[in-house]
Structure formats: C-alpha cells, structure tokens
Design goal:
By secondary structure, the chain is an alpha+beta fold. It contains four helices and nine strands; from the N terminus they run ααβαβββββββαβ. Strands 1, 2, 3, 4, 5, 6, 7, 8 and 9 form a nine-stranded antiparallel sheet that branches.
Length: 183
C-alpha cells in the first residue's frame, strides 16, 4: 500500500534527528529526549510517481517518537488519506552508529539530516529502493503546524540543491481531523 511506504519513510526520517544532535553534543553524549514527542510533517519533495500523482491531495501528517531501551525508537504516525486517517507504528533498531537507525520492513531505507536547529525544525533526506528504482524524498518537520518564512525558504532551497523541481515540492496544508492521541 502506498501510504504504508510513505509512513515508513516518514518515520525513518524523523530518526535522523538523533544523528544531528549527536554531532552537536559531541563527546558529552546524545540527549535522545530532544527528539521525543510530537512532530508535524509540514512539507515534502519527492521524485516518486505515486507522490507526484497525489501530492495535491496530501495534508500535514503527524508523528510521535518514543525512546525505548537499547537505543531503539518507537515511531507512531497519523497520516490523512482520502480513505481516512491511517495510523501506524514501528520499532526502529539502533545500528551501533550514534544517531543511525534501521528498518528492513518493505526494503532498506536510508535517511540523513540535511539541516536542523535540534529544537523546532528538521529537514530530512530519505531514499529507498522500490521495484528496482531508488526513490528520494525531502521532508520538513516542525514542532508546530506553521514554520517561519525563513525555514520555508531554506527547505525550498535545499530541495532545489537535491535536484527537486518546483512541481515536486509541496507545502502541506494543516488539518485537524487526523492526529495521534496523547497518552
């Protein structure tokens, strides 16, 4: 299912925040609590045909990250689709490299933090192989539903640097009907 692949890619991208925080914290150690909690996925850019066909139907998604034992993470998603709110969950395994996580569900995925302030936003680049083709996606995550014009401009600039065209970039409209329940 296309939305399942998108939710898996989105969850993996959030995990890359750990890598950037590790670099910022140096030898002091990684404060994984900074990435725990709620995130809004406010913008996307992708070269996937299914994304390009449906990008104008997409709305802002939500993700929640919980830090588990042994350095693993639990990522929960709420993604609005034409069929309703799709919720999913996955456990991501630490690879042994500080800030890097792995999931082999539906193929191998890689993620990289392109830019972040470690607190309010992150720009994530992800790639995965599907049907013998490598697909790429750039995402903008925010702790709030809105980001500043400066961060929006930065996201679009980074998307162009990654060879995404204007038609591949989408700032997602806010939505309230699909969310993750806070426990």
């Amino acid at each position: 299912m296309r939305t399942t692949g998108l939710s898996l890619s989105l969850s993996l991208a959030l995990l890359c925040l750990l890598r950037t925080e590790a670099e910022d914290l140096g030898a002091v150690g990684l404060d994984k609590s900074k990435i725990a909690g709620k995130w809004h996925i406010v913008a996307l850019a992708s070269d996937s045909e299914s994304y390009l066909q449906k990008k104008n139907e997409l709305k802002m998604a939500m993700a929640t990250i919980a830090v588990l034992g042994e350095g693993n993470l639990k990522v929960s998603f709420a993604i609005p689709t034409p069929e309703g709110c799709k919720k999913s969950e996955m456990i991501l395994q630490a690879t042994g490299i500080l800030g890097e996580y792995y999931s082999s569900e539906r193929g191998n995925k890689t993620v990289q933090v392109v830019d972040t302030d470690g607190k309010t936003y992150a720009v994530i680049f992800a790639s995965r192989v599907k049907d013998g083709r490598t697909l790429h996606m750039l995402r903008l995550y925010s702790r709030t539903r809105e980001v500043s014009p400066k961060i929006t401009t930065l996201f679009k600039k980074l998307a162009r640097e990654k060879s995404f065209t204007e038609e591949m970039i989408r700032m997602l409209p806010s939505q309230e009907e699909c969310s993750l329940d806070e426990a």
